[in-house]
Design brief:
disordered N terminus; six-stranded mixed beta sheet; 41% helix; 320 residues
Length: 320
């Protein structure tokens, strides 16, 4: 399929990219109570800014240095290079990264999101998925947003062009009519819808729903195990504040994502913020990796890791 070929060609380029992370530096390995966390600026991991603003990390005795990233692809590159101890990323880039860096571990599934949409312009004559045929869809290639777009097109037997657009450029690409539609995760999806106003058409489709993961290095899981456990106790507490939609929690997410609180009031209910690592996640990661192998973003001859062995729930709070 032409769309998938375009998508995975760009993913290969992204995988080979050596990102400069001078501002991040190496994680603080000298202090076992300090974690450097690569945070994708996205409500999917809203627990991080909530815990940070409310002092919940300090309450649980863990020092957290947060480094912002525009997408999980970049955050995972930093993690694989041991420039951060923990990174947030959706399941799509995580599956590919684990295939290349099997020593990394999935230590938390922070939220599940079923709100993915392709946002098209009504003025481009698009009001249904079928009308995406032959159109251009801007998306950050290699991310969960791109996978959602690709599977939506495939499920509907539609051929369209996926073109690289960085997350922070999606509003401009949509409003300046550089593309006919965009596929992007939050908070950018909401920003695109707001910017287009009445011209926005939100198209649902596909069977993919995002798992928003926390991954850690082998160094963090062995040398910083108490800090990881404390980190997730704080994340769990922050998740309870998000579930309750407390004013302080919404304010924290608004400050981190630069989204207005009233818009967040619509977005946050889309997420299940319960902290977990379910065994069935391994099956999902395997399916994503096999798809990537079929399309060429992972070497076809590469042996995939045992994704079940990559799941580590030891650091999550125990019920009761």
């Amino acid at each position: 399929m032409h769309t998938l070929t375009r998508l995975l060609t760009a993913v290969l380029a992204l995988g080979a990219l050596s990102t400069s992370l001078a501002a991040c530096g190496n994680s603080d390995s000298s202090d076992p109570s300090t974690l450097t966390v690569g945070f994708v600026v996205d409500p999917s991991w809203a627990q991080v800014p909530v815990a940070q603003r409310a002092g919940v990390f300090d309450k649980h005795g863990v020092k957290v240095k947060v480094v912002n990233f525009p997408s999980g692809v970049e955050a995972l590159q930093a993690l694989a290079a041991h420039q951060v101890d923990v990174a947030t990323a959706a399941d799509v880039p995580a599956a590919a990264t684990l295939a290349r860096s099997p020593s990394l571990r999935v230590v938390g599934d922070g939220s599940r999101w079923e709100g993915s949409r392709i946002v098209a312009r009504r003025s481009a004559g698009i009001t249904s998925p079928a009308q995406l045929a032959g159109r251009s869809i801007g998306t950050p290639l290699g991310t969960s947003a791109a996978y959602f777009a690709a599977t939506t097109l495939a499920d509907n037997n539609i051929r369209a062009d996926l073109v690289q657009v960085a997350p922070q450029a999606t509003v401009t690409a949509a409003t300046q009519r550089n593309v006919d539609a965009v596929a992007i995760f939050q908070p950018y999806q909401a920003q695109v819808v707001a910017a287009l106003g009445d011209d926005a058409v939100e198209l649902a489709g596909g069977s993919y729903h995002q798992h928003s993961l926390y991954l850690a290095t082998d160094t963090a899981t062995t040398r910083k195990a108490p800090a990881l456990s404390a980190f997730f106790r704080a994340i769990d507490e922050a998740g309870a504040q998000l579930a309750a939609r407390s004013d302080d929690a919404v304010t924290a997410v608004a400050e981190a994502t630069q989204l207005p609180p009233d818009l967040l009031g619509k977005i946050l209910p889309e997420f299940d913020f319960s902290l977990q690592v379910q065994p069935r996640l391994a099956e999902s990661l395997t399916a994503l990796a096999n798809w990537a192998k079929e399309q060429g973003s992972i070497d076809r001859s590469a042996q995939l890791p045992d994704y079940a062995a990559a799941l580590d729930s030891d650091f999550l709070p125990r019920a009761g």
